[in-house]
From TrEMBL:
It comes from Gordonia crocea. It holds the Pfam family DUF3263. This is DUF3263 domain-containing protein. InterPro entries: DUF3263. The lineage of its organism: Bacteria, Bacillati, Actinomycetota, Actinomycetes, Mycobacteriales. It comes from the Bacteria.
Length: 79
């Protein structure tokens, strides 16, 4: 896992506890677009090194992702 990956995870861990303009902070602090941030964050959730770096954060975000995926599936079958 790179230093940039660790910074991204640390940002994600810090961010959910604070209020503010997340997209602006992503661009300012990480130097990437919000779309790229979320793509990389999603990929890191499947990386064992990310789990070792911050297990509580990664497990929490994996649960959020699973709930979101379940909701999408339910909407598709109802629609």
């Amino acid at each position: 896992m790179t230093d940039e990956d660790r910074a991204l995870l640390d940002f994600a861990d810090r961010w959910w506890r604070t209020a503010g303009a997340q997209h602006d902070a992503i661009t300012r602090e990480l130097g990437m677009t919000p779309t790229r941030y979320f793509q990389r964050l999603n990929a890191l959730l499947d990386d064992p090194a990310a789990l070792a770096h911050n297990p509580a954060l990664v497990r929490r975000l994996q649960r959020v992702r699973a709930q979101r995926d379940t909701g999408r599936t339910a909407r598709r079958t109802l629609g």
